[in-house]
Amino acid sequence: MNKWYDSSETGDNIVISSRIRLARNVKKYPFSCRLSEEQAYNLIDDVKNSIKNSRTVFGDSFDFINLNEKSEIEKHSLLENHSVSPELINKNKPSAVLIKDDETVSIMINEEDHIRIQTVFPGYNIKKAWELADKIDNLVEESIEYAFDEDYGYLTSCITNVGTGIRASFMIHIPLIEMFGQVENLGQAISKFGMTLRGIYGEGSEPLGSIYQISNQVTLGKSECEIIDALKNVTNQIIEQENELRQNLMKNHRIDLEDKIFRSYGVLSNCRKINSKEAMQLLSDLRLGIITGILETNGDVNIYKIMMDIQPGNLIKNMSKNVSADERDIQRAKYIRKCLENNI
Fold it and tell me: Are 271 and 330 in contact (CB under 8 A)?
């Protein structure tokens, strides 16, 4: 089964992926911060059964993962693939996740809220992400009663999630907005429209390789469709801004852009040792080079997939052994060279 990040849509343009996340709590349990260990385990069983025991085709397509039984490397690999949040893997209480076979859906249990339903699609496919999230949400609710108030909507641990409980987001690659030092101004501008700009793994994380997440900040007082439409409108303006900078650079400073991109290609195709931060920035240059047509490929290279594979957790997982940071840097360089060979 191909994963969502194997799709060519992750490399076509500015929007890498579309995501919907729904925050839900189960009425019969106290919020996560007050859950006893026994209640936490019971909650996990309730949510697991709502999916695995369902009469739909969905049940058989999900894997159940008890995070308390996983190593730190395995948990970080799940984070690097965007299947779980930083909050979930750092929980002290019992926690788990159900992940669909193509990784378009993950249902996190005992995160900040009891349930976090997340759907991810490659490229600009926020409508598909919402439709699938809504379907999974309805499936869970067939056997679980949510904490809901007629006036306020879904009740959540954090007040900013009360209401629809929805976080809609795009993962965007904006190297030129970053290059020209406009990220801070962009963040301030979109906040006026109820949007926020975060790092590659969401709240509290840093951007890597000029990759950011843009999402809504508040869920109360607007419908899911209104929130998604607002996100699309703001993101379309960001896409326009990035494209204008790209066109200007291609027209007036093409040789400088080509030099930057080919230098990055030269390092990546020949280096024998590289850390993840430097590799992400140089791969960002390659992605820009491919999109602008400065670099030609045979169609078999997926830069975003490479970006995910070279993260520490995924790298160690694929090597099937824990190694030192120095050895990881050597293996990362080797993997990148192999991916680029005969493809660019």
Answer: no
CATH number 3.30.590.10 given to 4-243: yes
How many Cβ atoms are within 10 Å of 322's Cβ, its own excluded? 12
* Tens place of pLDDT per residue across the chain (344 aa): 689 988 888 887 899 999 999 999 999 999 998 999 999 999 999 999 999 887 767 778 999 999 999 999 999 999 999 999 999 998 889 999 999 999 999 999 999 999 999 999 999 999 999 999 999 999 999 999 999 999 899 999 988 889 999 999 999 999 999 999 999 999 999 999 999 999 998 877 889 999 999 999 988 889 999 999 999 999 999 999 999 999 999 999 999 999 999 999 999 999 999 999 999 999 999 999 999 999 998 877 899 999 999 999 999 988 877 788 899 999 999 999 999 998 88
CB 101 within 8 A of CB 89: no
- Cβ–Cβ < 8 Å for 229, 222: no
Instruction: Return residue ranges of the chain for CATH 3.30.590.10.
Output: 4-243
Torsion of CA 283, 286, 290, 293, to 10 degrees: 170
Q: How many residues does the chain have?
A: 344
